[in-house]
Design a protein that fits this description.
106 residues; mainly beta; 6-stranded antiparallel β-barrel; 6 strands; 7% helix
């Protein structure tokens, strides 16, 4: 886990709330390969990344990860959460990158 990310509560535009931080944590963020994408399709149609974090109570599928990388902020919408060993050690979140230019170099 070599990336520092912020896990944000879901936005509520009607209340004028964009994203509000829930917790900052270390994470492993990696693009999923072809075989992983096939597995992810069982859970969600757009999953593009696997984000692994230490187990945090209260994490929900409606939350958004933000990652600052090279002065730019990337956002990842969680689509599916699993606790692989059911021992509450880590959470694996399948997510998709939210902005239009996801993964492109600027």
């Amino acid at each position: 886990m070599n990336n520092r990310v912020t896990l944000n509560n879901p936005p509520n535009p009607t209340a004028g709330v964009l994203l509000s931080p829930f917790v900052d944590t270390w994470a492993s963020v990696r693009a999923m390969g072809g075989a992983e994408m096939d597995k992810a399709q069982q859970f969600a149609q757009r999953s593009t990344h696997l984000v692994t974090i230490p187990c945090q109570p209260g994490v929900q599928q409606s939350m958004v990860f933000s990652l600052i990388e090279g002065g730019n902020t990337r956002y990842f919408q969680i689509e599916y959460i699993e606790d692989p060993d059911e021992r509450h050690i880590e959470l694996r979140c399948m997510a998709f990158e939210m902005n239009q230019n996801a993964g492109s170099a600027s």
